[in-house]
From TrEMBL:
Gene3D superfamilies per UniProt: Rieske [2Fe-2S] iron-sulphur domain (2.102.10.10)
Organism name: Nesterenkonia aethiopica
Domain Rieske: 3-99
Cited NCBIfam families: PRK09965.1 (NF007422)
UniProt-listed InterPro entries: Rieske_2Fe-2S (IPR017941), Rieske_2Fe-2S_sf (IPR036922)
Record lineage: Bacteria, Bacillati, Actinomycetota, Actinomycetes, Micrococcales
Protein name according to UniProt: Bifunctional 3-phenylpropionate/cinnamic acid dioxygenase ferredoxin subunit
Pfam families recorded: Rieske
Gene Ontology MF terms in the entry: dioxygenase activity
Annotated TM spans: none
């Protein structure tokens, strides 16, 4: 089931938006070429918000260390993070951004629980 998480106008190209209304929080990104993607917001290494990271093409770099995550697959490119994040399916309907949350278990960092 899809949930509305924000409106398209809430998003800024090249930036992420943390959504706290779902648990665990997710990060929604609008890429420079107009694509909307959603992944888990919490880095898998430590408690950092990926919405506050740096977006380049379809990868976001964690704001704390140098691991980057794919917005398309959730995979991580290099340590210190070792596990990827979940990817959530996004549908843009008019101005509404709808997300179908992954049913997989989240890869939360040590000490963080849902
Ligand atoms: S907290 Fe994200 S790579 Fe360390």
């Amino acid at each position: 089931m899809s949930v509305r998480v924000c409106s398209l106008q809430d998003l800024t190209p090249g930036e992420g938006l943390r959504i706290d209304s779902v648990t665990p929080p997710i990060a929604v990104f609008l890429t420079e070429d107009g694509q909307v993607h959603a992944i888990d917001d919490t880095c898998t290494h430590q408690e950092a918000s990926l919405a506050a990271g740096w977006l380049e093409d379809c990868r976001v770099e964690c704001p704390l260390h140098e691991s980057t995550f794919s917005l398309l697959t959730g995979d991580v490119d290099q340590p210190p993070a070792k596990r990827g994040v979940r990817v959530h399916q996004v549908e843009v309907r008019g101005d509404d951004v709808l997300v179908e949350l992954s049913q997989d278990a989240p890869n939360l960092p040590p000490g963080v629980t849902v």
